[in-house]
From TrEMBL:
Residues annotated as domain M23ase beta-sheet core: 72-164
SUPFAM superfamilies hit by this protein: Duplicated hybrid motif
One Gene Ontology molecular-function label: metalloendopeptidase activity
Transmembrane segments: none
Name of this protein: M23ase beta-sheet core domain-containing protein
Alphabetized InterPro entries for the sequence: Cell_wall_metabolism_enzyme, Dup_hybrid_motif, M23ase_b-sheet_dom
Lineage: unclassified sequences, metagenomes, ecological metagenomes
Amino acid sequence: MFKKEKYLLVITLLVTFLSIIIVNAQEVPIANSFRFPLEGDWSPLWQDFGKWNNQWNGYHLGEDVGREDADTKNYAVYPMADGIVKFADIVLGYTVIIEHKLPASDPDGDYVCSVYYHMKRPGEGGIKLTLGEVVSTDSPIGYVSGKRKDYKSLPHLHFGIRKGPYKSGKDPRTGFWYYPGYTTIKINNEVQKNPDDPTHEQILTDWFNPTADRPGFIESHIIQIEQSTIGASLYHIECSKPIAYGEKMAYLPVSVSGPADDLALMLTNPEGKMNIKFIPKTSLIDNFETRYLWMGEEPFSEGPYTLTVKTVTPEKVIYKREVWFTAPKNIQITGGEITLARKSNCYYVRDLVLKFKNDGDLPFFFERPQIVLPTPGHPLAEEQIFSLGRFIAVPSGEFKFDSRRILGDWFCYAGSSKILNATARLYKNGKIILTFPMKLTMIEE
Ligand SMILES: [Zn+2]
């Protein structure tokens, strides 16, 4: 009898624990798959993350993605990952906050909250959500509103990602809640107008840049998730940074090591164009092999490039990964120096360095790079032009270009050497798009 009771107790406890585990599993989904909240184009953004806004007197805490004809069309808004509704009410349009529990050891912490503004109100075609409701990436949480009262400017989705679990109450630093659209600061009923107030910077660091910042939160999580599925494979496959080739192409270096087998490597770019390369069985023995897969031609599309690796016989996918590559961005010359040697009235190029920066992942190509030195009063040419070749390819990151091509080139000029100066001049599609004043060093020979 006693034994039976004990047995029943154990069973009851077991059932209770199991049901707690099951209920918990349903209530706290792990955000292990990510997506963009809208179908279709995410860029160009109407307003990027971190931009100062004069109307709101604050930095923008999300990204604005336009859907101008939202009054006539339904644009579904999806949660960026599975999560729990923590807020759903009318703020500026229907406004929703979803808390996401990130997978263990995620470098971005245990929790994040995604924020969606300017959706249709329930009762006006929107979706009514309840607090605590579990949402998933395959069903919409609302629709972009086409009513002016819901967005003020033009129909768009405002999408932000704040670090940490959901936080209720007022942020004492700003006087507003923790999920505003801007870092607006209101103290004693007065909005501060100083963009340099360090509080703005502080608040910005509570948020992630949602997308496309080499890469943004969403893209880096899409990549992470794909990577975590690779562990099971016997193959080790790695992509490096895209490299520039020729006057307008980019290739992706892919290295493979693993059991000897005939492999096919396929890369599909965002336009759906595919390139295929093979690795024969024999070259994989005790080795790793690198193949360069064609990514496309300029202008490059930003977006997911899908890398698939298959065994040839039997034809079987052993690896698939989507990697997000951003378009060339914020191309700059960060430094330029030219050294001229003077022999009486003639000048010889002895050294030339140009430094570039590209914040995107894909390369950028300049046409007709040249160095120009004005020589007013020169009988033949008002300016001396040194051509650095037909093009310069600027890969991702920092890049130093030194041209051996023009070393030794020369010109003679009777005017004062003191008035000489040099400018780098770069073209795109036949137009000058960038100039840079070079540091000119003169040596006497
Ligand atoms: Zn916004």
